[in-house]
Description:
Helix 2 runs antiparallel to helix 7 (212-245). It is built from seven helices and eight strands. It is elongated. The chain has a five-stranded mixed β-barrel. The protein has helices at residues 3-7, 13-52, 58-61, 127-133, 156-160, 173-176, 212-245, and strands at residues 56-57, 72-79, 85-87, 97-106, 112-121, 141-148, 167-168, 184-191. The chain starts with a helix and ends with a helix. 21% of the residues are buried. The chain is of the alpha/beta class. Helix 3 (58-61) links the parallel strand 1 (56-57) and strand 2. The model has no long low-confidence stretch (mean pLDDT 89).
Amino acid sequence: MTFLFFLFTGKRSLPTFLILVLAGLFTTLGIWQFARWKEHETDRRVIRADFAEPALSWNEVQASPLEFLHRRITVGGHFDSSHRMILRDQSFEGVPGAHELTPFFPDGSKEAVLVDRGWFPASDEGALARLAEIPLPSGQVELKATLQAPQKVSSFWAKLRADDPNRWYLVDLPKIAPTLPYPLAPVWLSLLPSKSSAVWPKPLALALPESLNNLSYTFQWFAFALIALIGYGAFQRKGWRKSRSLR
């Protein structure tokens, strides 16, 4: 009796089938994570390439801003200090905090664009009070930033999280826009770090999709599949040898 035939005879057929199904599931998850890694790596290359392009002015992108995502832009205008808000639950280097989101009116525009001015340390409960202590530039200012697409809810649990007009989990522009008394651009701006930046909020470096986790999970799922097959095969091989010796 061959070892393969032995695995599919008697009471061993059901556990053998279950192990094969389990190994197939682990392999499928590994393939899925590998595909996600490739997707994120492609996104990272595209974002870096867009960021490396020459900076544009707001007037050059205003008509169709979604066509210029991740591009660097320069825009002059003024902030609306009466509608400052936060992007909550944003840790940085292990420290809890939030990002400041403030509407900004480009010169000559009646449509505002939401600006992420950067991160500041604060507890979730005290973030709004902390924001009120952070000075906001008044009058005419010039910003250097990158164009970003609206963030969308990507999980069931995120849909259950309650936002309010001053505290948001995502830069979800379709949800934020109705809370403001003026039109809001379909993109938002992420300020770029500069030597003149205030201590808080702190503009962060260009955000890139995380890909190393996906690659790590790929190897883990493939390892689980091999462990299941090799471990089960080694266990059943002892019984197979014993059955052969009794003949």
